[in-house]
Structures are given as structure tokens and as C-alpha cells.
Amino acid sequence: MRKNPKLSRLAKKRIILESLVAFLILTAPFIFKSHEYFPGDSTESVNLFFFQLGANGFESVETHAWFIVGKLVPFYLLILWFLTCKHWWYHIILIPITMYAFQLFELYYSEDDVIDSENILWLLPVCMVVIPFVYFIRVKLYDKHVHGIDLKAMDEELQILKAKEELRKEREKLEQRKETLSKKL
């Protein structure tokens, strides 16, 4: 029996992708605790891949790393959850993702010295879009599965009733024409 090469490549890609996701989830606790390996001095800095990490207004490089890791790990875990979730409500995960994204953004692009202070105002537009969308999906599912209301069946029934009403009106018009013709003769 020959294997389909397309399916084989697809299976390999899926295994690699799922392994990467599992690896990212598996390493989350280690990444979260990695701040302990940064220097506790505010004058030192550490080169990480493509950027240099210094104290940046924190007491030490370790505190700065602790803050970044405390936001970055939940951020990427929520993104993984959003991308892999198969439930109807998965769009609601966008709200905490946005919250962590704004907190990380605020760390480097805020003018004031206070962090994690006003990001709720930035979340408001996201909430105003996501929450009604998710609620609308919930209402449709609730009506269909709990109340047994099938909107498509109701729509089809309304179309049938409209067609019947139009036929009834046509028949009335024909009967009126028939009466007027019989009176003329």
C-alpha cells in the first residue's frame, strides 16, 4: 500500500508545529524563572540576542527582567491558547492578550515613570468590539441548543408563509377579476 506524499508532508508539518507548541508550553516555567540569572546591579546590562537589557528605571536588571518575563510568558501562552482553542468563545481571549500587549508596550513607550496604570483605557475599544461579538455568538448557540430555536428553520418557515400570503393575494385578485368578468357578461 502506497502512502500519499501530500498527507505525509502534512503530517510531518503538523508534528513539527505541535512539537513547537508543546516545547513553548513546556519551557514557560523555566523562562518565567530566568530573571533570577540576571545581575542584581542597576549599572550592569546584559546582551540578549538582538538587544541590550539594562535596568531601564528599575532597581536592577533582574527586576527589569522579572517584569518583562512576568508579562511576556502569559502573553505568549495566551496567544498559543487563542490559536489552538476550538471553543466558540475563544475570541474573548483577545482581551487578556491585548492587556499584556499594552503593558509591554507601555513599559518602553510611556512618558511617565508609572507602569501598569492606565492600560484599562486602551482595552476599552477592544472590549467594545470583542464582548458584543462573543455575546452574539453565545445567544445564537443558546437559542439553538437550549431553547431549540433554529433560526434557519424559522427563516425558511417565514419565507414559506410569505410565499403562501403572496399566492393567497394572487388568488383573491384572480377571483375579483373573475367576478368582474362574470358581471360584465
Helix content: 55-70%
Would you count the extended β strands for me? 2
Q: Provide the structure class.
A: mainly alpha
Oligomer: single chain
First-last Cα distance: 84 Å
* Strand residue percentage: under 5%
Number of helices: 5
N-to-C order of helices and strands: HEEHHHH
Radius of gyration: 31 Å
- Report on the biggest sheet: 2 strands, antiparallel
Mean pLDDT: 83
Which term fits the overall shape?
Answer: elongated
Low-confidence stretches: none
Placed side by side, the strands forming the largest sheet appear as 1-2
Polypeptide structure, described:
There is one protein chain. This protein has helices spanning 5-32, 61-84, 94-109, 119-145, 151-184; strands at residues 46-48, 51-53. The chain contains five helices and two strands; from the N terminus they run αββαααα. α1 packs antiparallel against α2 and α2 runs antiparallel to α3 (94-109). It has 185 residues and is mainly alpha-helical. The chain has a two-stranded antiparallel sheet with strand order 1-2. It is elongated.
